[in-house]
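Journal club prep, shared notes

We agreed each person brings one worked example of a sequence with its structure written out as tokens. Mine is Iron ABC transporter permease. I'm keeping it raw so we can talk through how to read the token line rather than staring at a rendered picture. Sequence first:
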Amino acid sequence: MTGEVVTPTPTRHRGLRFTLVTVGLVVALAITCIVSITSGQYDLSPTSLVGVLLRGIGIDSAWAPTASTDYGVIFTLRMPRIVLGLLVGAALAVSGVLMQAIFGNPLADAGVVGVSSGAALGAAASITFGLATFGMWTTPAFAFLGGLVAVFSVYFISRSGGRTEVVTLLLTGIAINAIAGAGMAFFTFLGTTSTREQIVFWQLGSLNGALWSNIQLVAPLVLIGVVVALIVAPGLDLFALGERTARHLGVNVELLRVVVIVTVALLVCAAVAFAGIIGFAGLVVPHLMRMMIGPAHLPLVVASALGGALLIAVADLVARTAVPLADLPIGMITSLVGGPFFLWLLVRTRRRSGGWA
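Then the structure, token by token:
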């Protein structure tokens, strides 16, 4: 018998890359969280962190700090902020994956096309008028409605002949951002000093003031959105072949489209409702993950969720520690990273398409 050389298949290569990327992201995320919890104006040692966490689950250890301030800093201030950042990052990145898939366009992103601004406008309306229709869910509910209107508007305006035109997509995003900006300015004019400060918060984006009660609202929304994204991922792989082909392969294109759009609004609402507008996270992360693990949507959703959480965790760490005794807007930091990336992506897309004229 002659020996047969078995060459690795592309699928095996992609599976190995996905495993390596996932492990790397989890390790980087754990390290970033530890550094973030122990760094800041009130420094803590890693051993003190371990002692506090063990005390939190009822285990006394020699590492437990004697100062009660350590417990307050970790459990009341830093941990809620970090957990909220992880949820927001995952929500924005997964929404970016879904938007790029359903639009069939690499430039689609909740911030670029105005969906984040629409959600922030809805939240600002509920704050300015002091609405409490749905109790503690009022602000997230209005953010969801604003995001839903924005994403449907972008989708139907930018679609032409069964595809999404790049120029129309960008111009639609500019228009929606302008409308939302005007609305935010109007609500700022109408509001009190307190509501004006909150509206400015929406525009800059920040995790400052995160509370466990916020996380109780955000976590279920993000969990539902990510689970739905995982469920529809195989359908998105077929959708990428074209709507006609997807229909022939048994995909209910109309239902898939509506489910994805509503899911995007849900994820953006979860991110915007308590963190404000954080731009470009949904644009940068999916592209980086796609370049590393390939275009298959199921692993892409998982990797993007981890990558988005890591991006926001790192950005928040920089926001808290870059300037002493100051808390920088996290949206500014992500824009500093995402802006040049978007310009590079814009130029590359234009070259590949042979121009838009």
